Amino acid sequence: MTEEVILQVKDLQTYFTVDEGVVKAVDGVSFDLHKGETLGIVGESGSGKSVTNLSIINLIQNPPGRIVGGEVDFHGKDLLKMPPDEIRHIRGNKISMIFQDPMTSLNPYLRVSTQMVETITLHQKLDKKAAKEKAIEMLKLAGIPAPEKRIDQYPHQFSGGMRQRVMIAMALSCNPEILIADEPTSALDVTIQAQILELIQDLTKKLGTAVILITHSLGVVAGTCNTLCVMYAGRIVERGRTDDIFAEPKHPYTQGLIRSVPRMDRENADRLYSIQGQPPNVIDLPDCCPFYPRCDKAMDICRKKYPTPIKSENDRAVSCWLYSEER
After folding, report:
1. Which residues pair with 179 in a beta bridge?
2. CATH code of domain 5-108+177-285
3. What are the strands, taking DSSP E only, across the chain?
């Protein structure tokens, strides 16, 4: 990882208008991504992780979704203000994404070669023969045996783990500067998960690619990420170096997530901890701390106003009234 910042997300806001009201799926998210860094985003389902990253590459369906505010600065240009033709040149080329479900991300009616060659010819300006050679090379790097034969097969002829390898090969085929991996191991068994994560690490290190890793698993984050963002109800409640957050989690939600992880180094462990209650309904959410109904440290001010992020050394930030002098 270097000090060079290649992506700055500033106060990103993405809302969905539904019959019941306005869903503030992403409500003021900010973070920096450095060259060669792996940044993890964790949180419960519905916290806004995927919508944040779909917003970065302008893939929010409108209607019902709409990016209502913020900036996504990539090499001095705001991706949110780019015309469709220009953002299409960046999407899949400079910024690639591995989508959540490898079973449905590939078109079942098209051969793998057709889907990979299309991406490479579009962004790399190669002819079909050269593009297919590049695709075979990427499949080989992704650990697919006999790539010269497998490339002309259909997705249903691949296992789940192999499909995910195809997705990784396709995402990295244009040597992107940023790879967004949205739950890349969610549908795979534990052994294959480890192989896929190791593959992403190895390939991105070779190519110098920065990674945004979206996951539910704190174990995955601990082993792969330099920096960690913890999301809750559309906002980042804690941000910092992964080692610092695991050593000393500050936000009560982060503390609860870490306590929920099974410990294999303890004998006769107590009942596995779980955070009480349910995630909030983010439709027309009031301007207060949304975690207070589930927090055993909640104060009166938590019910009235959302806390300003408190920043400290090592680019650490936490949004909690426990650390604010305003209270």
Report:
1. 96, 211
2. 3.40.50.300
3. 5-18, 21-34, 38-42, 65-74, 77-78, 95-98, 178-182, 210-215, 227-232, 235-241, 310-312, 316-318
Residue 91 CA to chain centroid, in angstroms? 15
Max Cα-Cα span within the chain: 66
Residue reference for tokens 């209650």: 277
pTM: 0.90
Domain parsing of the chain, residue ranges: 5-108+177-285
What strands, in cross-sheet order, belong to the sheet with 316-318?
95-98, 178-182, 210-215, 38-42, 227-232, 235-241, 316-318, 310-312
At 173-209, the pLDDT tens digits run 888 999 999 988 776 777 777 888 888 888 888 888 9
End-to-end alpha carbon distance in the chain: 37
Distances (CA, A) of 277 to 249, 274, 292, 298: 20, 9, 10, 14
State how far the Cα of 38 lies from the Cα of 226, in Å rounded to an integer.
5
